[in-house]
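queue> pop job 88
queue> type: inverse folding (structure -> sequence)
queue> payload:
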């Protein structure tokens, strides 16, 4: 019997619900459907990232025809700064403004406030890579505190307090403030189907003491986000709200965060913060064993092929990542090797993937298809030599074709995992 969401934090028919079609014994993997006002999302699914209400280099029509994604994500921080959420609201919301005729998500803006604030230029990512370099504006605990140096840097001030975050725009240095209530207000104006509670994304190098402090603050902001959303009756009929599990790389904090947020009754859950490659699976496992089974789970900002496999087996339903278009713009594409790999737990097999930098000289005379093993339009139409030429010549079609190919590749890699789970 399918498992469906039985309750809503709003005591009314929830705009976003989840149905589980199949569970894979011995794992946390499941196949399901997220129901939204703008259509269903068959999970597991990859969410394409359109930071500023645009998938860079890809039109909405090309998304539909050549990528085949079911859902797209836009960024609250960036849309707040440009063009402004009121402009999008006046246009009739994100779907009309961007011609996105599909389910949509906006994040809370918390990660961008941090990464484009005091951490800007310091290499902060979703995966920890050892200790992050220290600076005056980022102390040993990972908190962003006021410093004279940071305050005079263009767009690099970020001050976190109990009520919210004060930051300066990376565009023009103007000062702004996000609170839980303000983030929800902005996201309601933007109008995505799924919005996300305001959270504090900590530095990968933050110690246990500060990770707990930030997690507790995220929980308080989550309650305020819920209250703010419930006060807008029109919004709660059209938008589902996700809470965000934090806790860094510490398993006990992740468990606590999952318990606290799970009891709040969100429509779904994001799993945020930074991980190391080694502890990603364990962190996801302990969280998803605790989160309500009948609610969807989104792994925020992580979506390389092997990470998706790991996330699916550990109970995640959707994934987003900027990598497909980011590496595509610089000439790197995903391709299949023709070999298969087996998941660490031995449950499923999946195709091995590789990244090819088409700027390399060896591809200048390689007249084979972009990826003979992929069924995408770009992969089956253009050659490595041609796209390599486009990048070498500085032609804008190069990044466009590489981005379309990479997005189709990841979207369909995830879709094929779904199909395999249904057959097992």
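queue> result:
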């Amino acid at each position: 019997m399918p498992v469906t969401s039985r309750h809503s934090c709003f005591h009314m028919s929830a705009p976003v619900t989840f149905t589980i079609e199949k569970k894979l014994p011995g794992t946390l993997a499941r196949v399901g459907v997220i129901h939204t006002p703008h259509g269903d999302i068959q999970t597991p699914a990859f969410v394409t990232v359109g930071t500023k209400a645009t998938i860079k280099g890809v039109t909405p029509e090309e998304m539909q025809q050549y990528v085949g994604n079911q859902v797209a994500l836009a960024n609250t921080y960036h849309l707040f700064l440009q063009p402004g959420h009121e402009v999008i609201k006046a246009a009739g919301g994100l779907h009309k403004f961007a011609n996105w005729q599909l389910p949509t998500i906006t994040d809370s803006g918390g990660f961008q406030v941090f990464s484009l604030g005091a951490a800007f230029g310091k290499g902060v990512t979703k995966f920890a890579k050892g200790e992050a370099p220290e600076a005056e504006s980022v102390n040993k605990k990972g908190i962003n505190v006021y410093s004279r140096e940071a305050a005079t840097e263009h767009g690099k001030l970020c001050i976190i307090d109990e009520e919210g975050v004060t930051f300066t725009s990376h565009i023009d240095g103007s000062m702004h403030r996000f609170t839980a209530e303000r983030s929800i207000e902005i996201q309601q104006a933007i109008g995505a189907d799924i919005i996300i509670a305001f959270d504090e994304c900590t530095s990968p190098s933050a110690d246990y003491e500060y990770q707990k402090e930030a997690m507790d603050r995220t929980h308080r902001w989550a309650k305020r986000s819920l209250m703010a959303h419930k006060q807008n009756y029109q919004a709660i009929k059209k938008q589902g709200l996700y809470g965000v599990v934090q806790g860094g790389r510490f398993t006990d904090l992740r468990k606590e965060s999952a318990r606290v947020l799970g009891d709040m009754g969100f429509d779904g859950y994001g799993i945020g913060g930074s991980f190391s490659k080694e502890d990603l699976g364990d962190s996801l496992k302990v969280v998803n064993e605790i989160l309500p089974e009948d609610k969807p789970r989104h792994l925020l900002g992580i979506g390389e092929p092997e990470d998706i496999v790991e996330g699916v087996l550990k109970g995640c339903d959707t994934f987003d990542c900027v990598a497909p278009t980011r590496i595509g713009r610089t000439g790197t594409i995903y391709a299949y090797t023709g070999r298969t790999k087996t998941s660490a737990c031995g449950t499923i097999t999946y195709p091995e993937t590789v990244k090819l930098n088409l700027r390399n000289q060896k591809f200048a005379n390689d007249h084979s298809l972009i990826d003979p093993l992929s069924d995408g339009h770009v992969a089956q139409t253009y050659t490595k030599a041609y796209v390599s030429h486009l990048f070498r010549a500085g032609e804008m079609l190069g990044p466009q074709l590489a981005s379309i190919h990479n997005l189709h590749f990841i979207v369909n890699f995830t879709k094929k995992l779904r199909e395999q789970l249904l057959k097992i």
